[in-house]
Every structure is written in C-alpha cells, then in structure tokens.
C-alpha cells in the first residue's frame, strides 16, 4: 500500500526540552560530531544546559563522547533499527514476572537483553527501589562485548561466528587480533562459570552480571542481567547473586521453551 504522509505542523503544546534534545540529535547526525560549545550554539542554549541534554542522550545511547577530543558523536542507538516488536513483546511478557521477583530479592535493577550482531539491546527493565541504583536503561544499545548481557550471549557463539562478527571487513565493531584474543579468552571463562560480568565498562562505577536464557533447542534467546553499583558487586556475588539469577532463568526457560530468537543475528 502506498502511504501518503500527513502534513507536519507544529504541535499545539511544545515540550521545549524534548524539542531541544531532538534538534541536537539531528545536528549531531548531520554534522557528524560537535563540541560542547557548538552543540550549545546549535540549539541556542547555555553550555551548561547543552551539557545536561547531552548527558541524557549519552545515558540512552544516542550520543557518545570521544575521550581525547571531547567531541560528541552519534551513538549506537542512532544506527539500530527496530526489533521485531511481536517477538520481543512476547519474550518480555514471559520474563517480566521473574524479573520483578529477582529485583525484589536482590534489591537491584534487573534488565532483559537481546543481542543483535555486535550490540546488546535492553528490551525490558525493572528498576531497583534503592536510593543509589542503576536507572532504567530500556532501549539502551551498548556494545555487546562491554555489556554483562552481551558477553553472556556472545559466549553462546563459537570462535568462527565470533571471528565473523569482529574480524571480518564488514564488522560493525572491528577489533585487533589481540583484542579478539582477549575477548575469546574471557568468553571461554564465561562458558565455564555460566555467567558474565562487566565491571565499569559501559559506565564508570556501574557493573552488570548476565546469565543467558535458552529455548528447548538450547538456542540463546536473551539474557537476564542484574545491574548495580560496582561498590556493591563483590558483596552481592558473595551473597549468592548468581545462584538467584540461575534459579530465575531456569523458571523463565520453562515458559520460553518453544520460542525462537527472531531478533538475534
């Protein structure tokens, strides 16, 4: 069907902060990168205001900041297409009850993650009620190799599949041979222990522990991830965090046994 777009008119009630954030996203996309001063000039705000907007865009993966140049670039969420909404909704609905229970017993934020090529996508979250906590990151798309859930799912692949993802000329996240060797060594350890850790990798001071979930054919569907401040990680592991996660995953796997991972590549 040939759909004719409706004319676009200015909304009757403008939310100025949203308007500024979206204008800034468009500017970063069109220019390729911006410095803080340039970003502020683009949307006609003070640098302090631009910095707050950029911080929120970074938090949700739409913008990244290069450490050396301090320039802001389009983030992974800008280049990732939609998931298959029917499958992800069904999957999330099957997991959410156990995610809530796990968040209650651990006191931490629990995420549901699927992998698409070299990225990990948060498709569901139950946020901790603690004052100091990891916030809701639903929609966030970090690099899989720096994510607790992403690593748990990468560990489900064999070395040939990993080489295709990271060492081929078409890789969306290319790495050197040395980096690849370090990653595969870490993934071998994850296969032995059955869980993955990402400590201060996506964001300083935040850590994540991921456990993969499989269907009845032992194909990985996604991962349950507990995200928490790094300062609480060691104590949580000592208190049996992984065992609680494994128990929750086992119960979820009973409900998703017949599902197929239509979004995973």
Helical content class: 40-55%
Global outline = globular
> Which strands sit side by side, in order, in the main sheet?
4-3-7-6-5
Tell me the major beta sheet.
5 strands, antiparallel
Number of helices: 9
Task: Name the average pLDDT.
Answer: 88
Radius of gyration: 20 Å
- SSE string, helix = H, strand = E? HHHEEHEEHHHEEEHH
Tell me the β content: 15-25%
Return the structural class. alpha+beta
Distance between the termini: 29 Å
**pLDDT below 50 for ≥5 consecutive residues: which ranges?**
1-5
Count of beta strands: 7
Short description:
By secondary structure, the chain is an alpha+beta fold.
Question: Would you kindly provide a written description of the structure presented here, covering whatever features stand out?
Answer:
The protein has helices spanning 16-31, 36-43, 47-59, 85-106, 148-154, 159-166, 177-193, 233-238, 241-255, and strands at residues 63-65, 72-74, 109-116, 119-126, 196-199, 206-214, 220-229. With 265 residues, it is α+β, with helices and mostly antiparallel strands. It has a five-stranded antiparallel β-sheet with strand order 4-3-7-6-5, sandwiched between helices. The protein has a two-stranded antiparallel ribbon with strand order 1-2. The longest helix is centred in the middle third of the chain and has 22 residues, at 85-106. The radius of gyration is 20 Å and the shape is globular. Residues 1-5 have low confidence and may be disordered.
């Amino acid at each position: 069907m040939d759909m004719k777009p409706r004319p676009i008119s200015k909304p009757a009630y403008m939310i100025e902060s949203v308007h500024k954030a979206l204008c800034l996203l468009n500017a970063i996309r069109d220019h390729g990168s911006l410095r803080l001063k340039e970003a502020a000039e683009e949307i006609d705000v003070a640098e302090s205001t631009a910095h707050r907007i950029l911080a929120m865009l970074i938090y949700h993966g739409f913008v990244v900041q290069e450490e050396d140049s301090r320039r802001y670039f389009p983030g992974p969420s800008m280049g990732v297409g939609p998931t298959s909404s029917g499958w992800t909704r069904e999957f999330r609905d099957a997991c959410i009850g156990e995610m809530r229970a796990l968040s209650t017993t651990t006191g931490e934020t629990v995420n549901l993650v699927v992998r698409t090529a070299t990225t990990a996508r948060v498709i569901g979250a139950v946020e901790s009620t603690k004052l100091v906590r990891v916030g809701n990151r639903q929609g966030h798309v970090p690099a899989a190799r720096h994510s607790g859930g992403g690593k748990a799912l990468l560990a489900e692949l064999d070395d040939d599949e990993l080489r295709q993802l990271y060492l081929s000329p078409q890789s969306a996240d290319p790495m050197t041979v040395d980096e690849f060797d370090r990653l595969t060594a870490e993934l071998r350890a994850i296969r032995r222990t059955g869980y993955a850790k990402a400590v201060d990798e996506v964001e300083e001071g935040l850590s994540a522990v991921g456990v993969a979930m499989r269907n009845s054919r032992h194909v990985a569907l996604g991962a349950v991830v507990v995200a928490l401040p790094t300062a609480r990680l060691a104590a949580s592991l000592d208190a049996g965090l992984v065992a609680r996660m494994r128990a929750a995953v086992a119960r979820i796997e009973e409900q998703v046994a017949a599902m197929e991972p239509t979004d995973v590549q």
